[in-house]
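Exam prep: given the inputs below (a chain plus MTE), describe the expected output before reading on.
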Amino acid sequence: MKTNPDNPVLYPQERKHAGDYFSASEVRLANRNAGIHLEMLEHDITPIGMHYLLSHFDIPSVPAKEMWRLDIGGLVAQPQSLGLSDLESYPALDQAVTLECAGNGRALLRPRWPNMPWCLEAVGTARWGGTSLGQILAQAAPDERATTVVFSGADTGVDAGHLHRYERALSIEDAMQEEVMLAWRINEQPLPPQHGFPLRLVVPGWYGMASVKWLQKITLTDQPFNGHQQANTYMYRQSEDDPGLPVSRIRVRSLMIPPGLPDYLTRQRVLEAGETHLMGRAWSGAGVDISRVDIAIQALDSPTGEALHADLEWLPAEMSDAANDRFSWRGWHHTWHASPGRYRLYCRATDSAGDTQPLDARWDRAGLGNNAVQRIDVWVEEQLPRLDEQ
Ligand SMILES: Nc1nc2c(c(=O)[nH]1)N[C@H]1C(S)=C(S)[C@@H](COP(=O)(O)O)O[C@H]1N2
Ligand SMILES: [Mo]
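Solution:
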């Protein structure tokens, strides 16, 4: 094999952290990989088209639904080649799952790692429909030496000079968990192309990278899997030479719907004094419940925007009924009697395993797993101008 050493795709320059301004590449990625609009946190189930998206390469062109095969091979006694109609004959599994990208919050770190510049919008909760993976793996009769299950998508591209298919692995124990599913429906509809049509993996509780879209092949092996998206990306690292720790489950987080009205360009918020309904969602990938969400409202000096008191006073939010599924977010709300001024609003979730969100972001070289407390600045006015007097 001979490739041109001047080719910057195969031989890229080293990626470096960046300062203030987003590059054209980051803006282009942001236009491809839309995020949820935070006001859509109003819905238990995120409407299709409002769920965030992250696709590394091009959305692959896939054969018609009837032609699609899922091949299961490697260390198995009974290799399988299954069409979608074969999968549909297994018991249906339908579950609301909160999916979040491990890069959510990346753009709030300084300095910034050039990659998809998520602020806080890489999350959504869909009702995924399909069937549990474990029973299908069991049909293939895994060899007892098999330790690892590799999932291969139909999409291919280059990242950091590595040409590869999008592939991720789970340990066989993790893959056999009953909630791990093969999904061909989202919110009662067939998967749209951007969410993995016709078939994807959904790994509840894990950051999104585990949920391989356009799933074509499952391979059982007794070797550790060292694919690019397993061993190089999606590792928590402090520095370049840090061997790193694998990214797995979603860290506890809450988000608030920004209250009041937005400024079009800056998204700064303005609202009228009085009773203000604050609401949002909280989730944790440990498969454990959210035990509490606390709210803090900090008065800021106007016009400097500096905090008038450094200390935060936390007030418990009311949690909505835990009607949703185990791997799905939970609603919370809080009534704020807002008086005129400038404020910073905070929300912080704690799960029943005792994990809570840090106030400040933990450093990660690639901007992964930043679950720091959200801050929203608002201006409260005695009265807003009347619409028809403008
Ligand atoms: N085949 C394939 N699967 C993939 C990806 C991808 O680029 N290719 N992106 C992963 C990442 S990083 C995330 S966060 C989720 C996003 O799923 P969504 O786009 O359906 O929200 O898909 C995961 N599965
Ligand atoms: Mo992601």
